[in-house]
Amino acid sequence: MIYVFLANGFEEIEGLTVVDFLRRAELEVCTVGVSSKLITGAHNIPVFCDLDESEVKLNDELDAVVLPGGMPGTLNLEKSETVINTVKYCYDNGRYVCAICAAPSILGHLGILEGRKACCFPGFEDELRGAVLGNDFVCCDSKVITAKGMGSAIDFSEKITACLINENKAKKIKESLQCPY
Question: N or C: which end of the chain has fewer CB within 10 A?
Fold first, then answer.
């Protein structure tokens, strides 16, 4: 199971590209609405989530958590006790913790990036406490995956898929999307 948390003000492409890509990989993905099942993205696109926070289960079936960025979506994610508990659970239990754009700042605040290579949307670097800042659009250090922003959403999704399944499957899905790179 992979939880993709969506909070009001999330960057739609960052959240929904991951969901689409991972479902194409036939992974079990649930969108989780922070505060309700109906969430409105940063560009006023409403999304009805699979679950709300009260339905989140922290158990052995959880493989990864994904945090999309956007503003004020990132701030709203960080205010959620459920989001924080899920991130900590995944990190403490060797599951994947994935964040893109401004959302890696949450990982920095939790101390998860200490000594790890990470990246984020330009301007949030100071929030990645203890991180070794990477110049790549997607950084993977152990089971922590970060990405710079909307333009790297497909590569971010590909990396998550490669880590959870394998690189060949991830590459085939990316090719099927007609990505020019």
Answer: C
C-alpha 52/C-alpha 49 separation (Å) is 7
Rounded to an integer, the average pLDDT of 23-39 is 97
Q: Write down the residue that tokens 């929030």 correspond to.
A: 127
CB atoms within 10 A of CB 180: 4
Q: Let me know: does 147 contact 119? Beta carbons within 8 Å.
A: yes
The whole-number average pLDDT for the span 108-134 is: 97
The span from the CA of 119 to the CA of 3, in Å, is 21
Q: Which residues contact 71 (CB under 8 A, 6 or more apart)?
A: 9, 42, 102
Q: Is the separation of the CB atoms in 67 and 99 below 8 Å? A: yes
138: left (phi over 0), alpha (psi -120 to 50) or beta: beta
DSSP secondary structure string, 12-79?
Answer: HHHHHHHHHHHHHTT--EEEEESSSSEEE-TTS-EEE-SEEGGG---STT--EEEE---TTHHHHHHT
Residue 25 has pLDDT above 80, yes or no: yes
